[in-house]
Amino acid sequence: MFASLGLEKYIGLFLSHEIDLMAFSSMTEKDLAELGVNAFGPRRKMLLAIAELKKRANHFLPAPGAERKTSSSTANSACSPRDKW
Q: Which intervals of the chain are annotated as region Disordered (predicted)?
């Protein structure tokens, strides 16, 4: 994801703080600044990506009362953490 935004240099920062996509999707502008994303442009791109992640997550929420099924997929387990960013 970061590569498509031109933010590859921040991948190591997020990995060193053990921030995965779930944690990333809940970050605020203040969180990003505290983490060390001080430049306005990259921080804004990240906030837009977070908003898009939230939008996509809400799109796939089940309707109220709908049965939620889970699956045990191991497809993502073969990817390294760096590949997910």
A: 61-85
Question: What string of pLDDT tens digits covers the 85 residues of the chain?
Answer: 899 999 999 999 999 999 999 999 999 999 999 999 999 999 999 999 999 999 988 876 666 776 656 655 555 556 666 666 7
The answer to whether the pTM exceeds 0.90 is no
Structure tokens at 39: 């430049």
Q: Domain tally for the chain?
A: 1
* 3-class secondary-structure state, position 82: helix
Residue 52 lies in a domain: yes
H or E element that contains 45: helix 40-59
Query: What backbone phi and psi angles, to 5 degrees, belong to 53?
Result: -60, -45
Tell me the HSE value of 34 on the side-chain side, using a 13 A CA sphere.
6
The widest CA-to-CA distance across the chain, in whole angstroms, is: 44
